[in-house]
Structure prediction request, 255 residues.
Amino acid sequence: MNDKKNYQNNNNTEDDNIIFGKNPVMEALKSGQPINSIYISGSGSLFSKISSMAKENGIVVKNVDDKKLHQMCGSVAHQGVVAACACAEYSTVEDILENARKKGRDPFIIICDEIEDPHNLGAIIRTAEAAGADGIIIPKRRSATLTPTVYKTSAGAASWIPVARVPNLVSSMEYLKSQNIWIYGTDASGADYTTTDLRGGIAFVIGSEGYGMGKLVKEKCDFLVSLPMAGHVNSLNASVAAGIFMYEAVRQRNK
Prediction:
């Protein structure tokens, strides 16, 4: 089978571009192609090698059944392994900090805590790039990734702002603190965002659509900030709330 036939865009799995088949997936790993996740239903030495290579490169490996792979690939022969590819390369937290240093200013970072809706993540990336943020940090699990839907919703901004995908948000937050960056969690119990000093090195944590920030992430924040709610609905869409917080920071930092 021609390798080109082993690559397709499929909307059933996070709208990812996918590569299927043992050899095409192996070659994608060897070439360093950006990959979000690898799904494996087979067993044996080759599958173990694929799994080991993926984990060495920080790629999430998911053991699934054949039914899952059939849903992703349709009627084609997937040979027990599928790679879901990213539409842009991921950066590191250090890349984000270097991005701020090159601009000669204090870091301005957005941390997305389990934002699972790709449209929300794309909208946050688009707003962050427009607001001049230095980068986005997302977790490797339980989060939307750089899929075509995210890329399209970001209006291409995902090509212009670094996105780091990390195994542990709390550890990344601790690292940011060691770099003199204050962490601001967005939560209904927080102080009014307009009365909070958002200058200097800062990182906003935007919680998940349904549950907000996780317990450990919330505990690691230096401050909590909130938006006033005067209507019957007591919350905003995550990307809308993120945009309001970001532009308040822009207003204060531009004074």
Observations:
- Residues 238-253 form the longest helix (16 residues).
